[in-house]
Amino acid sequence: MQVNIDKLSQKLSADPKANVTLQKMIMNEMSTAKKSTAADALLWLTRSLRLIQLFFDKLVNGEKEGGPVEDLAAKITDAYDDIIVPHQGWMAQQLFG
């Protein structure tokens, strides 16, 4: 996550007036033919934050349903499978899946 935050921060620092909001940053980036670094960083940062949210949801719901809270690895794996795996390339799925 920090890598993606750093990419967005660097983009902001490069031109603070033009990149005053994330939306403007992405729009400015899309209007150029350059690589979409900020858009990719924002996309993966959003996915990472969603992963954490889903992990906590699974913890809370598991406790409410009387399930074992100690099984953190299973809960984070489930969240990862739901959020990240659908966006990984074929090779990454073969290596880590």
TrEMBL record:
Q: Which GO terms describe its molecular function?
A: ceramide 1-phosphate binding; ceramide 1-phosphate transfer activity
Q: Where is the Glycolipid transfer protein domain?
A: 1-96
Arranged from A to Z, the UniProt key words for this protein are:
Transport
| UniProt-listed Pfam families | GLTP (PF08718)
- GO terms under cellular component: cytosol; membrane
Q: Which PANTHER family match?
A: GLYCOLIPID TRANSFER PROTEIN-RELATED, PLECKSTRIN HOMOLOGY DOMAIN-CONTAINING FAMILY A MEMBER 8
Write the protein's name: Glycolipid transfer protein domain-containing protein
Native source organism of the sequence: Bracon brevicornis
